[in-house]
Protein backbone atom coordinates (compact mmCIF):
# COMPACT_ATOMS: atom_id res chain seq x y z
CA UNK A 1 0.00 0.00 0.00
CA UNK A 2 1.25 3.49 -0.77
CA UNK A 3 -0.11 6.98 -0.23
CA UNK A 4 0.69 10.53 0.74
CA UNK A 5 0.32 12.14 4.18
CA UNK A 6 -0.73 15.79 4.38
CA UNK A 7 -1.69 18.30 7.08
CA UNK A 8 -5.48 18.72 6.90
CA UNK A 9 -5.81 22.52 7.01
CA UNK A 10 -2.88 23.52 4.77
CA UNK A 11 -2.56 20.36 2.61
CA UNK A 12 1.22 20.58 3.21
CA UNK A 13 3.12 17.30 2.88
CA UNK A 14 4.18 15.83 6.20
CA UNK A 15 7.71 14.46 6.49
CA UNK A 16 8.88 11.75 8.92
CA UNK A 17 5.42 10.54 9.91
CA UNK A 18 5.58 7.07 11.48
CA UNK A 19 3.51 4.60 9.45
CA UNK A 20 3.03 1.23 11.15
CA UNK A 21 1.21 -1.87 10.00
CA UNK A 22 0.16 -3.20 13.38
CA UNK A 23 -1.13 -6.46 11.91
CA UNK A 24 2.15 -7.40 10.22
CA UNK A 25 4.42 -5.62 12.76
CA UNK A 26 6.27 -3.57 10.12
CA UNK A 27 6.75 0.16 9.81
CA UNK A 28 8.21 2.97 7.76
CA UNK A 29 8.53 6.76 7.76
CA UNK A 30 7.06 9.14 5.19
CA UNK A 31 9.48 10.85 2.81
CA UNK A 32 10.03 14.60 2.35
CA UNK A 33 7.08 14.79 -0.07
CA UNK A 34 4.79 12.95 2.40
CA UNK A 35 4.77 9.72 0.39
CA UNK A 36 5.00 6.32 2.03
CA UNK A 37 4.92 2.67 0.99
CA UNK A 38 4.20 -0.19 3.40
CA UNK A 39 3.24 -3.84 2.90
CA UNK A 40 -0.48 -4.26 3.61
CA UNK A 41 -3.35 -6.58 2.82
CA UNK A 42 -7.06 -6.40 3.33
CA UNK A 43 -7.99 -6.24 7.02
CA UNK A 44 -4.61 -4.88 8.23
CA UNK A 45 -4.60 -1.91 10.62
CA UNK A 46 -2.26 0.95 9.69
CA UNK A 47 -1.33 3.63 12.26
CA UNK A 48 -0.07 7.09 11.36
CA UNK A 49 1.57 9.25 14.02
CA UNK A 50 3.84 12.25 14.21
CA UNK A 51 4.93 14.63 16.93
CA UNK A 52 2.57 17.60 17.01
CA UNK A 53 -0.20 15.79 15.13
CA UNK A 54 -3.06 13.54 16.21
CA UNK A 55 -2.78 9.81 15.70
CA UNK A 56 -4.88 8.16 13.01
CA UNK A 57 -5.63 4.54 12.28
CA UNK A 58 -6.90 3.02 9.07
CA UNK A 59 -8.27 -0.43 8.36
CA UNK A 60 -7.22 -1.53 4.89
CA UNK A 61 -10.15 -2.43 2.64
CA UNK A 62 -10.14 -3.86 -0.87
CA UNK A 63 -11.39 -0.45 -2.07
CA UNK A 64 -8.30 1.24 -0.66
CA UNK A 65 -6.05 -1.38 -2.24
CA UNK A 66 -7.75 -0.99 -5.64
CA UNK A 67 -7.48 2.83 -5.87
CA UNK A 68 -5.33 3.78 -8.86
CA UNK A 69 -4.23 7.13 -7.41
CA UNK A 70 -2.31 7.30 -4.18
CA UNK A 71 -4.78 7.96 -1.36
CA UNK A 72 -4.28 11.03 0.81
CA UNK A 73 -4.02 10.55 4.56
CA UNK A 74 -4.98 13.65 6.55
CA UNK A 75 -3.45 14.39 9.96
CA UNK A 76 -4.66 17.24 12.14
CA UNK A 77 -2.36 19.42 14.17
CA UNK A 78 -2.56 18.64 17.87
CA UNK A 79 -0.76 20.95 20.27
CA UNK A 80 0.19 19.63 23.66
CA UNK A 81 0.39 22.32 26.30
CA UNK A 82 3.07 21.73 28.89
CA UNK A 83 3.48 23.34 32.27
CA UNK A 84 6.27 25.85 32.56
CA UNK A 85 9.64 24.68 33.82
CA UNK A 86 12.25 26.77 35.58
CA UNK A 87 15.86 25.73 35.29
CA UNK A 88 18.37 27.01 37.79
CA UNK A 89 22.05 26.27 37.36
CA UNK A 90 24.40 25.41 40.15
CA UNK A 91 28.10 25.88 40.36
CA UNK A 92 30.28 22.83 40.80
CA UNK A 93 31.00 23.94 44.38
CA UNK A 94 27.25 24.07 45.17
CA UNK A 95 26.67 20.63 43.60
CA UNK A 96 29.67 19.17 45.45
CA UNK A 97 28.43 20.58 48.75
CA UNK A 98 24.95 19.08 48.23
CA UNK A 99 26.39 15.66 47.40
CA UNK A 100 28.82 15.69 50.32
CA UNK A 101 26.21 16.89 52.82
CA UNK A 102 23.57 14.38 51.69
CA UNK A 103 22.41 12.18 54.54
CA UNK A 104 20.05 9.29 53.94
CA UNK A 105 16.89 9.19 56.00
CA UNK A 106 17.10 7.13 59.15
CA UNK A 107 15.51 3.71 58.84
CA UNK A 108 13.83 2.16 61.85
CA UNK A 109 15.47 -1.16 62.62
CA UNK A 110 13.16 -4.06 61.93
CA UNK A 111 14.49 -7.35 63.28
CA UNK A 112 12.26 -9.53 61.07
CA UNK A 113 13.31 -7.61 57.96
CA UNK A 114 16.99 -7.86 58.95
CA UNK A 115 16.66 -11.63 59.50
CA UNK A 116 14.95 -12.05 56.13
CA UNK A 117 17.66 -9.96 54.43
CA UNK A 118 20.36 -12.15 56.02
CA UNK A 119 18.53 -15.28 54.80
CA UNK A 120 18.20 -13.82 51.29
CA UNK A 121 21.90 -12.96 51.16
CA UNK A 122 22.77 -16.43 52.42
CA UNK A 123 20.45 -17.98 49.81
CA UNK A 124 22.13 -15.94 47.07
CA UNK A 125 25.45 -17.29 48.27
CA UNK A 126 27.15 -13.94 48.35
CA UNK A 127 28.68 -14.53 51.75
CA UNK A 128 29.34 -10.81 51.94
CA UNK A 129 28.14 -8.48 54.66
CA UNK A 130 25.44 -6.01 53.75
CA UNK A 131 26.94 -2.51 53.72
CA UNK A 132 25.61 0.95 53.00
CA UNK A 133 27.95 3.28 51.11
CA UNK A 134 28.07 7.03 51.35
CA UNK A 135 26.66 8.99 48.38
CA UNK A 136 30.05 9.85 46.87
CA UNK A 137 31.29 6.26 47.16
CA UNK A 138 28.05 5.00 45.68
CA UNK A 139 28.29 7.34 42.68
CA UNK A 140 31.96 6.55 42.16
CA UNK A 141 31.46 2.78 42.36
CA UNK A 142 28.37 2.89 40.14
CA UNK A 143 29.71 5.02 37.32
CA UNK A 144 33.44 4.39 37.35
CA UNK A 145 34.35 2.18 34.38
CA UNK A 146 37.13 0.39 36.22
CA UNK A 147 34.83 -0.37 39.16
CA UNK A 148 32.12 -1.61 36.78
CA UNK A 149 34.58 -3.95 35.06
CA UNK A 150 35.91 -5.12 38.42
CA UNK A 151 32.36 -6.03 39.50
CA UNK A 152 31.79 -7.90 36.23
CA UNK A 153 35.02 -9.87 36.71
CA UNK A 154 34.06 -10.69 40.30
CA UNK A 155 30.58 -11.89 39.21
CA UNK A 156 32.15 -14.10 36.52
CA UNK A 157 34.65 -15.54 39.01
CA UNK A 158 31.81 -16.34 41.40
CA UNK A 159 29.81 -17.93 38.60
CA UNK A 160 32.53 -19.76 36.65
CA UNK A 161 35.49 -19.95 39.04
CA UNK A 162 38.92 -18.40 38.80
CA UNK A 163 40.60 -18.67 35.34
CA UNK A 164 43.88 -19.73 37.00
CA UNK A 165 42.10 -22.92 38.15
CA UNK A 166 41.70 -24.13 34.55
CA UNK A 167 44.41 -25.81 32.53
CA UNK A 168 44.95 -24.37 29.11
CA UNK A 169 46.20 -26.21 26.07
CA UNK A 170 47.77 -24.54 23.06
CA UNK A 171 45.91 -24.99 19.80
CA UNK A 172 47.26 -24.91 16.28
CA UNK A 173 45.40 -22.86 13.73
CA UNK A 174 46.19 -23.25 10.07
CA UNK A 175 44.74 -23.15 6.60
CA UNK A 176 44.57 -25.86 3.96
CA UNK A 177 46.64 -25.02 0.95
CA UNK A 178 45.61 -26.01 -2.57
CA UNK A 179 48.20 -28.83 -2.57
CA UNK A 180 46.73 -30.31 0.64
CA UNK A 181 43.14 -29.96 -0.47
CA UNK A 182 41.46 -33.27 -1.12
CA UNK A 183 38.15 -33.96 -2.84
CA UNK A 184 35.28 -33.84 -0.40
CA UNK A 185 37.23 -31.87 2.22
CA UNK A 186 35.90 -28.72 3.78
CA UNK A 187 37.58 -25.42 2.96
Large-scale geometry: elongated
**The CATH homologous superfamily of the domain at 2-75:** Carboxypeptidase-like, regulatory domain
- Annotation field: number of helices: 5
Structural category is: alpha+beta
**Architecture of the domain at 2-75, CATH level 2?**
Sandwich
The stretches of 5 or more residues where confidence is low (pLDDT under 50) are: 123-130
> How many strand units?
7
What is the CATH domain class of the domain at 2-75? Mainly Beta
Q: The biggest beta sheet, please?
A: 4 strands, antiparallel
Order of helices and strands: EEEEEEHEHHHH
* Intertermini distance: 45 Å
CATH fold type of the domain at 2-75: Immunoglobulin-like
How much strand content do the residues show?
Answer: 15-25%
- Average residue pLDDT: 76
Radius of gyration from the alpha-carbon trace, in angstroms: 31 Å
Strand order of the largest sheet: 3-2-5-6
Helicity range of the residues?
25-40%
General description of the model:
With 187 residues, the chain is α+β, with helices and mostly antiparallel strands. Among the domains are: 2-75, Carboxypeptidase-like, regulatory domain (Immunoglobulin-like, Sandwich); 130-161. The chain is built from 5 helices and 7 strands, in the order ββββββαβαααα. The protein has helices at residues 62-66, 92-101, 111-124, 135-143, 145-160; strands at residues 2-7, 18-21, 26-29, 35-37, 45-49, 56-59, 72-75. The protein has a 4-stranded antiparallel sheet, with no helix packed on it. It has a 3-stranded mixed sheet with strand order 4-1-7, with no helix packed on it. The longest helix is centred in the last third of the chain and has 16 residues, at 145-160. It is elongated, with a radius of gyration of 31 Å. The two termini are 45 Å apart. The model is unreliable at 123-130 (pLDDT under 50).
Amino acid sequence: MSGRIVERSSMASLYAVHVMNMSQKVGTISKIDGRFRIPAKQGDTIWFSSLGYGRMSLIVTKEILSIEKEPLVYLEEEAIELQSVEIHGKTFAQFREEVLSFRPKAIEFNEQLAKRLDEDLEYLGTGKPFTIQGPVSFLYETFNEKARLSRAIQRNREKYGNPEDYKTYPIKIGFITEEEEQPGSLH
